[in-house]
Amino acid sequence: MDYKEMYSKKLVSADDAVREIKSGDWVDYGWAATTVVDLDKALAKRLPELTDVNIRGGILMKEPEIFKIDDPAAHFAWNSWHMGGIERKAIAKGFSFYSPIRYSELPRYYRDSQTPPDVAMLQVAPMDEHGYFNLGPSPSHAMACIRSAKKVIVEVNQNMPICLGGFDNCVSINDVDLIVEGSNTDLYELGGGGAATDIDHAVAKYIVDEIPDGACLQLGIGGMPNAVGSLIAESDLKDLGVHTEMYVDAFVDIAKAGKITGMRKNIDKGRQVYGFAAGTKKLYDYLNNNPACMAAPVEYTNDIRSISALDNFMSINNAVDIDLFGQVNAESAGIKHISGAGGQLDFVLGAYLSNGGKSFICMSSTFKTKDGTVTSRIKPTLDNGSIITDTRANIHYFVTEYGIVNLKGLSTWQKAEALISVAHPDFRDQLIAEADKLHIWRNSNKR
């Protein structure tokens, strides 16, 4: 098979490639760092001729050109598997919508979908001598999407890191319909949510004190998980492993500090396993052709069975708020959409099933509203419309700058007492009064 000849026959311009997209089509746009760039520009020019195009993607790291066309809602809907700030702004403009799903279920969703992609397009690394395009740092659900799609278009980016894996991290030219050679832009970068604050460091210290040598780590995105990563990099911990949904910059720092060997992992020994990666150039350079790292589909990384097979699994995630019943909201502020379900619940459940495992939900005890009012993140009940990401039956450890509490198995009054004990002191009396009204406060608590 002459792969170069096949490549030449399938090579087209971005403008020609997007002619495959018709009104009413379902189109996949890549994921995070592999979201298309040149194809996006070409489609932005074509979209004014089309209507009712449904586009799927998520974790946008730059505003797509299609978002900038006149009256986008008249031409397409953006359906996001996991929203960030760019997509949130588009909700108010009437063309951006969240698709609620546990992230681990995405590959099966594509295999079983009643609306498979008419066109799937994504950025890839250049074809190798065997006729394969590496999927870069976003294996995630990519191959399930590709296999279910009617047409597959790849946008080749010379700057895409080669991310080694176990399976489903490359696509064969045989499974590709059209090839576009992109403008080789640098991969879009995603920061860690700002510099860690004193509160982040206080929370991180409580968590790091709970981590044993040889533990396997999962970190979420944001200041607090990154602060945990920084403290781990500076700690005396050793022989750590990685098995995570999202690979973030903090893991690079921990690895370069010599803390990660992965040699105590029960599965994938010696490998840092992840479903997708997004961060700075430091991260992409580290992942490139690195045999210590293993890119894998999210149905493997986020499978409760994979997580629970790893001893001493430590899952560390942020949330928006929590109520006195122990219900965790990590997705919205009331009805205002913020993020998505992602894999948080998978890791909360899987970590607890792990031998010696622990899951941590962490947050600052308060936040400031736009008018400067300080509000407690620990609430009597979640605000109307808030999404329950983790139910009250599933929470293990909860952490604020005021302490760490194990909520597993506590009765309603014990749970309320524990949560109030790590609330900001200015709000504790008010929370006690509310707990009393909710009949989850015992008189003995007041002694």
Give a written overview of the molecule.
- The chain is globular.
- It folds into two domains: 7-181, Glutaconate Coenzyme A-transferase; 198-446, 3-Layer(aba) Sandwich (Glutaconate Coenzyme A-transferase).
- The strands form six sheets. Strands 13-12-11-10-14-19-23-24 form an eight-stranded mixed beta sheet, with helices on both faces.
- 27% of the residues lie in helices and 21% in strands.
- Helix 5 (106-112) runs parallel beside helix 6 (142-148).
- The model has no long low-confidence stretch (mean pLDDT 95).
- A hairpin with a 2-residue loop joins strand 23 and strand 24 (403-406).
- The protein is an alpha/beta fold and 447 residues long.
Keywords summarizing the entry:
alpha/beta; 27% helix; Glutaconate Coenzyme A-transferase; seven-stranded parallel sheet; 447 residues; 24 strands; eight-stranded mixed sheet; single chain; 15 helices
